[in-house]
Amino acid sequence: MKKHPVKIIQKLLNGVEVEWKRLGEVVNTVIAPTKVKRSAYMESGNIPIIDQGANYIAGYTTTDVVPVKSGEYVVFGDHSEHIKYVDFAFVQGADGLKILQPINDNAKYVYYAFVNFYRKIKSYKRHWSFAKDTLIPIPPIKVQKKIVEILDTFTELTAELTAELTAELTARKKQYTYYRDQLLSFEEGEVEWKRLGEVGEFRRGKRFVKKDMISEGIPCIHYGEMYTHYKTWATETKSFISEELAKKLRFAQKGDVIIVGAGETIEDIGKGTAWLGDSDVVIHDACFSFKSPLEPKYVAYFSRTRLFHDQIRRHISSGKISAINAKGLSKVMIPIPPLKEQKRIVSILDKFDALVNSITEGLPREIELRQKQYEYYRDLLLSFPKKEE
User: Fold this and answer.
1) What is the pLDDT of residues 193-211, one digit of tens each?
2) CA distance 385 to 16
3) Do 381 and 6 contact (CB within 8 A), yes or no?
4) DSSP states of 104-151 as a string?
5) Helix, strand, coil percent content, the chain, rounded in steps of 5
6) What beta strand segments (E) does 139-217 contain?
């Protein structure tokens, strides 16, 4: 049976007192010989660029600049408060970076301790003036190395688990997409094909803005929510507008399919959501309601297939915001099996959809739990008593 990491550290300390010091006392600040402006960042190059952004490596540059020489550093975003450990030569990107080099202590240990004990302010100002006063425990070097060894293992295991869970989610989504497209693909002559404009009617919504949206009132759907919140079908809305404003706008009714008609990317355009709520719902002017005798969820599922999007591409106008009009949507050809078969296909896809959504919601929670577990052990490993305790 493996020993608990904290007990390992207690054994290593063996009665040795741990001194707590200000971060500024145990590091020297390194001045980068050169800095690269953000506009000069490259996607590839010989030397990585480290800046105060969230990305570990912000970009690359070529060898005609002098880098910070290879070593072990803790870098701190003076504005962003991001903390990174760097053990290779790099070029500083832009301003606002504090490059710290431990004087006598293990650099990776100082990094872990700084991350654990620093409390972020989360405001855009210079933070090093008080970040350097962060108290960190300084045990003997051999204990520092053991803690680093344990936390490196935890970090690696957490990263591996996250990668595995993410890969599983991606695989499930691909599998779902494949089966959905297969179920909605028919051989020539197998079923009747018609244009959407032949079997139904498109009606465009009317404009309202985000500041009009409130927490209670008349149900409404803003086109921006179609990308982030709504899936194949819905019975409730995320947002509402006032009854007074709703009188001036347009509604979709139960059984209509709401199709988004504008977006920053072509891939977002055309996604449909079957509205199955008992009340009518106000829709934004970048959305269309589609009313037809077809099974609404069948139409919504079809609107998310490759076949559907291949057809609407030629009718999308590109610009800062890409868009399609009702005329373009009306030209889309849709396979129309008997209503009973439409419902059977929907039933199968509902099961796949529920499975993928449960995984989509469950995996991030699992990843978050693993991260919290890692942080818990990191805190335990670094929780040395202070003299006043």
Assistant:
1) 999 999 999 999 999 999 9
2) 11
3) yes
4) SS-HHHHHHHHHHH-----SSS--HHHHTT-EEEE--HHHHHHHHHHH
5) 40, 20, 35
6) 192-195, 201-204
* DSSP-derived secondary structure letter, 322: E
Confidence of residue 13 (pLDDT cuts 50, 70, 90): low
DSSP state, residue 270: T
- How much is the pLDDT for 327? 95
Strands (E), 160-249: 192-195, 201-204, 218-221, 233-234, 239-241
Pick the closest to residue 291 from 261, 257, 260 (CA basis): 257
Q: How far apart are the first and last CA of the chain?
A: 32
CATH of domain 192-336: 3.90.220.20
Q: What is the pLDDT of residues 177-194, one digit of tens each?
A: 888 888 888 877 889 999
Q: Which residues have a Cβ under 8 Å from the Cβ of 228 and sit 6 or more positions away?
A: none
Q: Which helix (H) or strand (E) holds 306?
A: helix 306-312
For the segment 10-27, the average pLDDT, to the nearest whole number, is 82
pLDDT, one tens digit per residue, over 241-259 is 999 999 999 999 999 999 9
- Which residue type is seen at 14? N
Is 0.85 topped by the overall pTM?
no
Every domain range in the chain assigned CATH 3.90.220.20? 19-138, 192-336
- With 70 as the cut, is the pLDDT of residue 5 above it? no
Question: Given this structure, which CATH class describes domain 19-138?
Answer: alpha beta
Whether residue 100 contacts residue 74, with contact meaning beta carbons closer than 8 Å, is answered with yes
Which uninterrupted H or E stretch holds 238? none
**pLDDT surpasses 50 at 118:** yes
β-pair partners for 240? 214, 219
